[in-house]
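Working notes for the structural subgroup meeting. M.R. asked for a predicted model of this chain before we commit to crystallization trials. I am recording the input and output together here so anyone reviewing the notebook later can reproduce the run.

Input as submitted:
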Amino acid sequence: MSAIWKLTVPLLALFFAVASGLAIIGGPTNADPSEQEVKDALQYTVDHIIGWANTPFLRKLTRVGDIKQQVVVGMMYVLTVEMARTNCTKEEEETQCVVYTDPMIASPIRCNADVWKHPITEKYEMMKMACVA
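Returned structure, recorded in token form:
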């Protein structure tokens, strides 16, 4: 009888943890956008998108969607961001850049990015990125 309980109790605990919405150890969790590491991952993502975009115009972050984090060998961040074109080129000082309000000119994009933070070097690496207009 004790063998059945040794199996049943952990399974029930797992079931109730999942049913109550608790995160499973090692699974993705919501990231706190006010934490410095999350801000750094977000900035890395924005900089990467600006460099990747095939346009001479600077894009700015207009909206942050979901940010998830997952402990792997290091930390994996899964981010959704929206960016739009500004009135500045990439070479200009970006302090006075304004995002266009007309969607035809702003050409907004929505990007999903998986960013990995290396545990030893603490550098970020773009693992996967997809953007749509």
